[in-house]
Amino acid sequence: MKHFFLTAILWFGIFTANAQDLKSPDGNFLMHFSLEADGTPVYKLIYKGKDVIKASKLGFTLKNDNKSLLNDFKIEDTKTSSFDENWKPVWGEVSSIRNNYNELAVSLSQKETDRKMIIRFRLFDDGLGFRYEFPQQNNLIYFTIKEERTQFAMAGDHTAYWIPGDYDTQEYNYSTSKLSEIRGLMEKAYTKGNASQTSFSPTGVQTSLMMKSQDGLYINLHEAALINYSCMHLNLDDKNFVFESWLTPDSHGDKGKMQAPCKTPWRTVIVSDDARNILASKLTYNLNEPSKIQETSWIKPTKYVGVWWEMISGKSTWSYTDEFPSVQLGVTDFSKAKPNRKHGATTANVKRYIDFAAKNGFDAVLVEGWNEGWEDWIGHEKDYVFDFVTPYPDFDIKGLNEYAHAKKVKLIMHHETSGAVRNYERHMDAAYKLMKQYGYDAVKSGYVGNILPLGETHYSQWTNNHYQYAIEKAADYQIMVNAHEAVRPTGIARTYPNLIGNEAARGTEYQAFGNDRNNANHVTILPFTRLIGGPMDYTPGIFEMDVTNGSHVNATIANQLALYVTMYSPLQMAADFPENYERFADAFQFIKDVAVDWDDSRYLEAEPGQYITVARKAKGTDNWFLGNVNGETARVSNIDLGFLEKGKKYTAVIYADAKDANYKTNTQAYTIRKVVVTSNSKLSQFSASGGGYAISFYPVADAAKKK
Ligand code: NOJ
Ligand code: CA
Questions:
Q1: In this protein, which residues make up the domain named Glycosyl-hydrolase 97 C-terminal oligomerisation (predicted)?
Q2: Domains in the chain, please, with CATH?
Q3: Which residues form the pocket of ligand 1, taking CB atoms under 6 Å from any ligand atom?
Q4: Which of 234, 261, 349, 704 could form a disulfide with 243 if both were Cys (CB 3.0 to 4.6 A apart)?
Q5: Distance, CA of 682 to chain centre
């Protein structure tokens, strides 16, 4: 009671002063909210006494409305509260997640217009989330956002790990530079060649944006729960190091169609003085709503192979025939067309992959290029490319599903939309029904090319609503979704755990794209950026780095193994050809063994752009798997195996780079050694340039049983 009065007095004092402080549960963060003299809302964030976000303004400009939502506010009310609960994700890096924060909701009203806006702040032990809410009211009902003007004022010229701002793609290599250097590097960073690209500013970058300050703070800016809103980029004022939100416009140049009551996504600032804590943060998921899917037994972490790398690397084709300059569904008679003999998705080839999957314990086989329409799918802004239900004559959809199911393997459906979003929506029910008919429970979708209707982009509110519609509709059919080229994830998989994967960054496919491949340190940055919002279908596991089309994969075999642990995903592909796995059967053993769902995860070493070392405990077992990926500079990790259960002996199988391995010229030089370890053991392990290592740990008794 005494406490209550004290806080009430404090609140009153602050109320009149137009300012209020909020602390994180552990007291390390302080968020300060205030109104400037002209009624502009401002916040700042301090971590362990250091400025993370200096005084930064909050608000919006509106279309056709001279009175913006930038100033002239007064505080009507403030409410503080605390929250602490543990929740269990359907799949994840850990089996239980703590959601613990202190909240401040500031209710504002604009003096002249009496418009109401609530700014809700949640301060966790790993950072801050805040969003704008517009309650039901008479003076602000339908409105169009011209600009969201949320600022993130950085305290210095930090090092940033960034990709160019773009309304259509995140498929870029990362640049590492000072904030002040972004403008000078933008042209070089903005590599061309993607089927759809729209840049907007010489200092525009995408989120999740990772930064490091000179005094050792790791700062990550992103968003959570991007629903019915446009994707946020950041535009930098590089004289003052102030980022401002830059929303993706719609086809009219507008940035958001709103109807109160409504809210924005959360803007997130994850901070630590230890890079490992950024990787371990669950703040993005915690800011999303709990699962809306009640019965989740059909959602299953999946390890898969596929008829895929052969098309990406130019060995075979998605298309069935080379006979026609173009095709039209319902008009072109494929049954009479001459096959090109390079088609990948043939019944015989798919059977080969099913046999391989069954023999090696994989759950599923992805098959791309199974359906009519691939002959002219790209580059024509063609609306009706695919119907998602008509197989090519050489793909026996019924027989192959029966063949697979008899071997306890599933086929993964593939829906390439070629950006024709309305066409996909028109066919979606029929497409999902066909999947159910044949027993598919997962779909990989794709959005290559400009979005149709023209004028919309991949990350506009309208298109984001489509991705959400596809996820929710798939959930109605109990179908898991892995969307490529869709907007980057923002933790929505907590609410819709059937969203088991996304691409939304450069995946392994770019390693086959000749002179514009992924940098060797790409995989040491992605967990700090793209993975902050959710898992990525990175499609690792390439063993033959010299690709059919002459390209070269920038990695060693040991690095490729480690990705199954460092790039957390409930969906993991073994992307290379069966014959390459057979050539290196001893290394392939790790991919067969590694889990895809976890009880626990420990980040042991991490520095963006340089290295990441993670250990994870496989769900429902005593087995651990460890992965290390390394950037350009060869190094030695010194790690402590204290995560293992005390008093237990484990057989550790260590798959590592040979001394002379490197990602350019000696990619297949690895060693495999077996040692017995305990939680007291220390490990000193070499990683080559662009290399890494992977370890499986089995309790000694189980390891004996396995043999
Ligand atoms: C791009 C995707 O990222 C890739 O995985 C897929 O094979 C092609 N589109 C074709 O759909
Ligand atoms: Ca892609």
A1: 597-697
A2: 20-287 (2.70.98.10), 302-595 (3.20.20.70)
A3: 308, 368, 416, 446, 448, 484, 503, 509
A4: 234
A5: 33
